[in-house]
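Quick one, T. Sequence first:
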Amino acid sequence: MKDYYSRILDLLRRLGIALLLFSLTRLFFYFFNLSLFSDIRFTELLKAFFVGIRFDISVLVYFNLPIILMHLIPLGKVYHSKTYQQIILYYFVIVNSLLLLINLGDAVFYHFTLKRSTIDVVKFIFISGDVLNLLPEFFLDYWYISLVFVAIVITLRIPFRIDRPKKTQTHSLSFKLFAKQLLVMVLTLIVLMIGARGGLQGIPLSIMHANASTNAKLSPLVLNTPFTLMKTFNDETIAIRTYFPSDEIKNYFQVVKNPSNDGAFKNKNVVILLLESFSKEYVGSLNNYKGYTPFLDSLIGHSLVFTNAFSNGYRSMDAMPAVLMSIPCLMNDPIITSAYSTNNFTALAKLLKTKSYATAFFHGGNQGTLGLDGFAKLSGFDNYFGRTEYNNDDDFDGNWGIYDEPFLQYVIQHIDSLPEPFFVTGFTLSSHYPYTLPEKYENKFTKGPLRIHRVVRYTDFALQGFFETAKTKPWFNNTIFIISADHPAQSVIPSKAGNINGKTNLPDKELLQYYKNSSGRYAIPLLIYAPGDTTLQGEITTTIQQTDVMPTILNLLHFEKPYIAFGNDVFDSTVIHAAFHYYNGLYQITSGDYCLIFDGEKPIALYEKSDVGHIDNLLEKEPEKTLELENILKAYLQEFSHRLRENKLMVE
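Structure tokens:
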């Protein structure tokens, strides 16, 4: 039995080394994203690291189960054979080094997405070849990840080198010895499986447990990426949420819109321009600083701008259904790659085609990028135009597709060929990692604290060229332009910003902090520019979200038929105006000066907008506001889950 106990000690030593490395990669995650956790007290941070061990153990047991069994199964002298030990060694090092590499890589990726990666990221990689094309650039930019990975591989081999030599058994196992070892094996497995399920609680460890164990803001630190990938592997359906009788939901949110427009339908052209990764933070006029969007700033002065606008997600694939179908993404998978992608959807293009609109979707990306070509067909566009249709790789950026400046001019050329009225959506791409510029503009645009700033400046310049050309067209004054970001991107770290050309080009520090909290991180620029309608100018401070775009456009056009939308017309003062989000297993509603975070069963935090660090939880201090926002959010989730599951996204 002494030899058998030494095997168990070997196993625990090896798993212990791996567990230590998981904690070190969590530390790497923390320091790489320090600006997002800078206001966390040391005691809270320590608790997050300690609770995180529970999730690390779960991953380690599940993924190392084959070699756990190889250590524990009573096999006599077979265990000491060279081949047997090499299998254990190679499995342990390869599997655990890959798990830790995923953790390291996601520390970088988190800075772009602000959530631990789930299985939708893997699906995205297979859907879009662009990600694989970008990997060489990624490894060059973050070369030190490779060095850390090599150190991890070396460290994982250490316990195999320090294990003391064992004497190979030369006799067969007696029944008594075999029975003892079998009993110890069962007991050890029971203990390890308790670790795998995260304890003796009623249900196995889940992503939601991270939120219950500590401050919701710290859940990304508590979790590890292999765990979130594992837990969302078969997460293809959304849980049915039922909080109210069906006839009570309308008291809090009405998803079926019944327009009361009495006037004649307005055959105005509609052009939606989605700007890749344009954070509100980058727009100078919305933050009282110079910024990186001089043309957009000038256009805002002649537009109706929404100063409290939010994206519905942090992925381009979330923006498409939100803006063009008025459907948010309140689950891990984007709608267009989920199990519900074949549902029957209400879509703006389909509704406008009933009014004889010509429709077209433009994105200069490679064929299949983000699944946009398939989405364009799904949502009712007549035609899709991308890099293939552009057919001139002299303007190819080498990664994602055609540079914004020439492609936006290409959009104008095709609009000229469309009969009026038309509905066109154009989606830029240059302000996307790795942030390349055409060679002739390498020294033209202002650099900023972030690499993306220079390319945002370029896309703003391309947008200026688009409108300068559009102004010369006969259809220009009869067109409503809606300009929005698809989602925000990185936020500046004040301490690392430094001086750019002798002066700092940064918003106020409180704003920078706001753009890092769970609500402000979704803040985007959104405006309506209607050159033929001077009434659509000024500012609206009401909270709005991307799903509000479709019902707002339909109202401006005096569309009269009923339809389904998870947004509201921004001009309707009789309805709730809010933004809804899903992140790290939590649901969130932002409305006016408040933000409520909900775990699916109960509210866990209420913050005021002025509390930019989300420090003062107002749940107990503001029970009426909590209940008000909780009921709205519950009604919203109930409608979303039932209609998605039951394929009831169109008016019958």
